[in-house]
Structure formats: C-alpha cells, structure tokens
Fold:
Amino acid sequence: MTQQHPITPPSELLAYWERELYEEGEDYGVVLVQAYQSGADEQLEQAAKWLDISALFSAHLTITPSGDALRQAMRPKAPSLKEQVLAALNEIEDKHAGPTIQEQLIRRALEQLDD
Structure:
C-alpha cells in the first residue's frame, strides 16, 4: 500500500488474513468477503461518528450536514503539491521564528501558481 487510505485495516487483521490464505489455505473469495465486510463496517462507524459530531455543531451553528460534506470528510482530497510545499514552508518559517527574505520570495512565487 503506497498511499495511506483513511480506512486501513490494522496490521493484526492483515496478518490474520495472510495466515488464513497462506498457512490455512483458505479460499481467496472468503478472505476478500471478510475484508470487504470489515471495510464496510469501519466506514459505517466513521460515518456515524461524523454525523454525531456534525449534528452537535449544526444545532449551534445552523449548518445542515450533507452528503457532500460526509463524502469530503470520509474521502478527503489529497493536498496539491502547492499546498504541500506551502505547509513545508510554514514549518521552516516556524523553526526560524519568522520568514527570511528568501522564504518570503518563495511564498509569493508559490501563491501565484495555480493549484
């Protein structure tokens, strides 16, 4: 898995499925169904937590939770390269107690780029 997904099986569960496949000779279909069901269960738990939290906030802020908001919360878009570089620049500036002239120049150039 090269990219971490918001819902990833714990390493213990992966090891269990691997044992089932290789050591116990379990059918791939059975393990795939277990994995699918496990992912769906975890998705449901995450969605329920999100809905509970959103309902609390919406009661105070007149925000109505929506399907689009749920989708965004469950599958956040990866930050663009520009956003990643700006975040890295923020960290560098924080370590140096403020931006240098060079860092200010880099920030201005980055901010002019399209996402």
About this structure: The first helix runs from residue 11 to 23. The chain has two domains: 11-74, 81-112. The two ends are 26 Å apart (CA to CA). Residues 81-112 form one domain.
